């Protein structure tokens, strides 16, 4: 098991539409995103703007097994197209007796191309895991949609 040697480990990570903390501390995750279908770029779209669509998503994840003290949490987005700006690392204070901590990060992602969109999660600079979703283009109404190559 990943947590047996007192190394931080990722319990879960998922992209979703919404989260809610219930009474008693339970986390409810709704609208899990594993595949997102977008319409193809319109014929009149600006060829200088590489963004197909801007999507708002939540990344819900939980890390366990960290030693008490100060740590740094870093989430890097890896997407097809031009690299995105990555938010800075977040300082995390892990108190004695804490088994795990969960986070919900909201991202506005400018989708530039179909393909795998991934959030890599690092704790104190070491990768603990990732979450991802696939973007593909919808078929056009007349059936002459985009090529399925790479989808």
General description of the model:
The chain has a single domain (9-39, 60-136), classed as Immunoglobulin-like (Sandwich), CATH 2.60.40. Strands 3-9-8-5-6 form a five-stranded mixed β-sheet, with no helix packed on it. The chain has a four-stranded antiparallel β-sheet with strand order 2-1-4-7, with no helix packed on it. β1 and β2 form a beta hairpin. It is elongated and about 60 Å long. The protein is an all-beta fold and 151 residues long. Residues 145-151 have low confidence and may be disordered. The protein contains no helices and nine strands.
* Structure class: mainly beta
Quote the average pLDDT: 87
How many strands? 9
Name of the CATH architecture: Sandwich
The profile of the biggest β sheet is: 5 strands, mixed
Beta-strand content bin: over 45%
Overall structural domain count: 1
Number of helix segments?
A: 0
- The top-level CATH class is Mainly Beta
Q: Which bin fits the share of residues in helices?
A: under 10%
**How far apart are the termini?**
34 Å
Low-pLDDT stretches: 145-151
SSE topology sketch:
Elements: E1 9-21, E2 27-32, E3 35-38, E4 53-64, E5 69-78, E6 90-94, E7 100-111, E8 115-123, E9 126-137
Parallel strand pairs: 3-9
Antiparallel strand pairs: 1-2, 1-4, 4-7, 5-6, 5-8, 8-9
Give a quick precis of the structure.
The chain is mainly beta and 151 residues long. The chain is built from no helices and nine strands. The strands form two sheets. A five-stranded mixed β-sheet has the order 3-9-8-5-6, with no helix packed on it. Strands 2-1-4-7 form a four-stranded antiparallel β-sheet, with no helix packed on it.
């Amino acid at each position: 098991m990943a947590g047996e040697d007192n190394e931080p480990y990722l319990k879960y990570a998922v992209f979703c539409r919404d989260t809610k903390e219930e009474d008693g501390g339970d986390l409810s995750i709704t609208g899990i995103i594993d595949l997102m279908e977008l319409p193809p770029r319109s014929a009149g779209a600006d060829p200088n703007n590489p963004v197909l669509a801007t999507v708002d998503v939540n990344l819900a994840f939980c890390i366990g097994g960290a030693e008490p003290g100060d740590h740094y949490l870093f989430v890097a987005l890896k997407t097809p197209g031009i690299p995105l700006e990555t938010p800075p690392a977040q300082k995390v204070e892990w108190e004695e007796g804490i088994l795990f901590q969960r986070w919900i990060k909201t991202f506005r992602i400018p989708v530039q191309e179909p393909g795998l969109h991934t959030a890599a999660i690092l704790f104190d600079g070491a990768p603990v895991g990732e979450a991802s979703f696939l973007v593909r283009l919808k078929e056009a109404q007349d059936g002459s949609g985009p090529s399925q190559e790479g989808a």
